[in-house]
Amino acid sequence: MIKARDRVLKAFRLTKGNPDRVPIQFDLCRSLLDHFGNKLGIPVRYTDNLYEDVTYRISGNEVRLALGADVVVTGPGSPKGWKPSVAADGTWLNEYGMRMKQGSIYVEVTEYPLRNAQTKADVDAIVWPKSEVPGRYDDLEHLVKEYHDDYFIIGDMEVTIFSLAQQMVGMEKLMMDMAMDEEYIRPLFRACTDFQIEIGKSMVRRGADAFWVGDDFGAQNGLLFSKDMFRDLLKEEYVRLVREVKKEKPDAVAILHCDGAVRELLEDIHEIGFQVFNPVQPGVPGHGPQDLKDAIGDRMCFWGAIDQQQLLPHGTDEELEVDIREKIAVLGKNRGYMISPAHILQPDVSPERVEKFVELCQRYGKY
Q1: Which of 2, 107, 153, 191 fits 52 for a cystine, CB–CB 3.0-4.6 Å?
Q2: pTM (2 decimals)?
Q3: Domain that holds residue 205
Q4: What pLDDT, on the 0 to 100 scale, is given for residue 283?
């Protein structure tokens, strides 16, 4: 049996030859991580990310590896000794200055730092978190040291440019101001990019094999904005980010997480320099596995494609098996695929279904 690291390198076409099987990845919410940590007798290591929901992408790697994952997903944590001050109403300010509250599943921003932004000066006044501070990469360095020889290491920098700007400004205002090309919009995207370039460089310099950018350009039925608007306001910032991080480590793999129906942007995503597309959200227009494989599968790899909204929590084992077999057969043909749920698994997915998912992927993923 080959190492998990080599399995991923072959699947992503970074080395020659077929892997023994399609590699597997999955993210678990806190209750699932705690359950499996207790069941397996493995302490769950939590890394508190700058944006709280990303915590569950980069935590519990020891548990996930024991369950059958083939990659380590890590990323920047909070500075040593930093703790948010929680107000009487239960909200808190994170490192970006967003006022946050815990929603039913994900955290929510209740007060946006740039909610009144109008000018470049408003953007210039923002005090961004520092990339290089004590403690920021302690967990990343530990995981690289512990696992790099055996596992592919992904450095996560989700909520990167567009989504970070959205959480700084608020969605409605940002979208309106993008349409009007307000004075502060381009400086804001540039400032988000500048900050994330430093995060990306710091991660790959410390041994991450890949940097995982995360911004959602789509809704359930189509793009959030036109292709022309994306190309005018955002595309060059992503080009700059990928270029600058790769200057630090030329062989670092550029991965994009982008939810929604974004088939129309895949050529642009490829042109930017992204090598892997995630999460391949199923059930939205243009995301049929054969259509995606035919359109761009010879030039990009896929990661994801298993529905966590309905299939994993509510489907039968037989339905899950059919879907896994189809995704592996289509997206995994001639390599280029890592199978995964399309997002973090939540408490509506039972521990038994998590184990069934892994077992089916291992059973049917063989080349």
Answers
A1: 107
A2: 0.97
A3: 4-80+117-364
A4: 93
